């Protein structure tokens, strides 16, 4: 997968060199390219913002640098080969913004299937709307929010989204099973939060690991894990429990 990020703070994205995403890049699974938006300005101050039409606080990112950056990074008509011999595809533009649609695991799964993502994280009060409307005439655009709070800029949201997407790419996770049991992964544990986990030693500061986990009884362990997941979901995310469809629960779930 190719990922381009256009930003006035490329150094904010240095964590992409580290750990899982860094390894995916070393393995050639991810091709991440960072671009300095100010490289597409022409004035001595490398200005990227200006005052908002209609008045109001803050500054708005000017359209021209963004348009030149997007035209260079993702020229009209450009494609990359699809994954696993799929037909070539153009880029998909992702604009992180608190006024976007929620970035969920389902969105991560959808984006992980695309071979080329271009991220346009903004600072200040956002990017001149015409940039997004113009880009939308030649590529899919997703305006996405990572939660109901306001960050100073979209760069951290890019880190969040890239990590969530990268770990879904084939060959990135060491253990193929790890993505399957995730909280929010599709399947039986759909929309259940994961319960507690334990490792050795079996006794630590007088605290014991739950006996069932040492029993070797796979059926009982699976039941215990599901019960703990249900309890945790009810405690932390009653909204998810309220959205359960009855057929997703079994008789023993109702006893928890
Ligand atoms: Cl994507 N950007 C900013 N600036 N703030 C946010 C966000 C994104 N998602 C939640 N808050």
UniProtKB/TrEMBL annotation:
<dbReference type="InterPro" id="IPR029028">
    <property type="entry name" value="Alpha/beta_knot_MTases"/>
</dbReference>
<dbReference type="GO" id="GO:0052906">
    <property type="term" value="F:tRNA (guanine(37)-N1)-methyltransferase activity"/>
</dbReference>
<keyword id="KW-0819">tRNA processing</keyword>
<comment type="function">
    <text>Specifically methylates guanosine-37 in various tRNAs.</text>
</comment>
<dbReference type="GO" id="GO:0002939">
    <property type="term" value="P:tRNA N1-guanine methylation"/>
</dbReference>
<dbReference type="InterPro" id="IPR016009">
    <property type="entry name" value="tRNA_MeTrfase_TRMD/TRM10"/>
</dbReference>
<comment type="subunit">
    <text>Homodimer.</text>
</comment>
<dbReference type="GO" id="GO:0005829">
    <property type="term" value="C:cytosol"/>
</dbReference>
<protein>
    <recommendedName>
        <fullName>tRNA (guanine-N(1)-)-methyltransferase</fullName>
        <ecNumber>2.1.1.228</ecNumber>
    </recommendedName>
</protein>
<comment type="similarity">
    <text>Belongs to the RNA methyltransferase TrmD family.</text>
</comment>
<dbReference type="InterPro" id="IPR029026">
    <property type="entry name" value="tRNA_m1G_MTases_N"/>
</dbReference>
<feature type="binding site">
    <location>
        <begin position="146"/>
        <end position="151"/>
    </location>
    <ligand>
        <name>S-adenosyl-L-methionine</name>
    </ligand>
</feature>
<keyword id="KW-0489">Methyltransferase</keyword>
<keyword id="KW-0949">S-adenosyl-L-methionine</keyword>
<keyword id="KW-0808">Transferase</keyword>
<feature type="domain" description="tRNA methyltransferase TRMD/TRM10-type">
    <location>
        <begin position="1"/>
        <end position="241"/>
    </location>
</feature>
<dbReference type="Pfam" id="PF01746">
    <property type="entry name" value="tRNA_m1G_MT"/>
</dbReference>
<dbReference type="InterPro" id="IPR002649">
    <property type="entry name" value="tRNA_m1G_MeTrfase_TrmD"/>
</dbReference>
<dbReference type="InterPro" id="IPR023148">
    <property type="entry name" value="tRNA_m1G_MeTrfase_C_sf"/>
</dbReference>
<keyword id="KW-0963">Cytoplasm</keyword>
